[in-house]
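Folds vary. Our protein:
___
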Amino acid sequence: MRNLGFTLIELIIVIGILSIISMGAIAVLNPAEQFKKANDAREKADLSQVQKALENYYEDHGTYPSSATGYKIQVPNGAGVKIIEWGSNWQPYMNVVPKSPNGRYVYYSGDGQTYYLYASLERPGDSQACNGGGVCSGSSLTDLSTACGGVCNYGVSSPNVSP
């Protein structure tokens, strides 16, 4: 009588080979790095959207909004000013001003003719990051090493300056 099936040794060998292949795949794909890459892509897209809204504001008013304490956008509102919180609406320019998933965004405008938007990317070696992932240095802010909740290593700015 013949037994059909696999021996215990054969099963152990197959499981061992599958384990080695799966460990190699995990090492190559690196899911944690992929999540960081996705967060960085989101932050870049967020800053691009805010940049477009700021340019629309400039077209309407001839000046960029000033920056408020806490690196937020500040706009005139009747007799006073309105501070645009990250994550709130800014009609008619944006339905929701994006909020950073891993820290905070920094907005700075000193003269109404230039602005700087900064973020702290999780992958500092990004090729588009300021100074190769080091601290951005385009504005007159002096605390860009900590202003973003980390090192401000990615920035966009008004067309007449560089981040």
